[in-house]
Design brief:
alpha/beta; 2 domains; three-stranded mixed β-sheet; about 150 residues; about 30% strand; Histidine-containing Protein, Chain: A
């Protein structure tokens, strides 16, 4: 059975190898009984998502407690209307996403997706598309999956 230290080291190694994380050392890794807690600050929601996914891939990790904060490093940031425009463009550019069925609201960089789609993969794709948009610091996915 792996030790707490060996699991922490494995998660740290996974973070260090991920080229999507500009500064992986800014994410602290704690482990207790199969629960890995990630704390720290990253520059985008996509980086936060990448760190959590990296930790989940490590054997012996049962749960990831995501306490990572997103802080946009650009002091001017993006206005919510600009973020919304980029989110809408990202959704429209993905053939797996029925963008016309999805509403987007942005408040202080927090994006809320609403609407109805036919399949779970469409909701998942929308979430993943939004995670990569600069200026997004969090996502609430309220897209409902309804069978036609």
């Amino acid at each position: 059975m792996p030790t707490r230290a060996s699991v922490q080291d494995a998660v740290r190694e996974a973070l260090d190898k991920d080229s999507r994380l500009a500064h992986p050392s800014e994410v602290a890794v704690l482990c207790e009984d199969g629960v890995v807690t990630l704390r720290g600050t990253v520059g985008s929601f996509g980086q936060r998502l990448a760190a959590v996914r990296d930790a989940r891939k490590v054997p012996s990790v049962d749960i990831v407690d995501d306490q990572i904060e997103v802080r946009i490093l650009d002091p001017d940031g993006r206005a919510d209307a600009e973020v919304r425009g980029f989110v809408l463009q990202a959704l429209a550019s993905d053939p797996d996403v029925p963008a016309e069925l999805i509403e987007v609201k942005v408040t202080d960089g927090l994006v809320t997706l609403t609407g109805e789609v036919s399949y779970q993969f469409q909701s998942d794709a929308a979430y993943n598309d939004v995670a990569d948009v600069f200026g997004v610091i969090g996502i609430t996915n309220d897209i409902r999956v309804v069978n036609p």
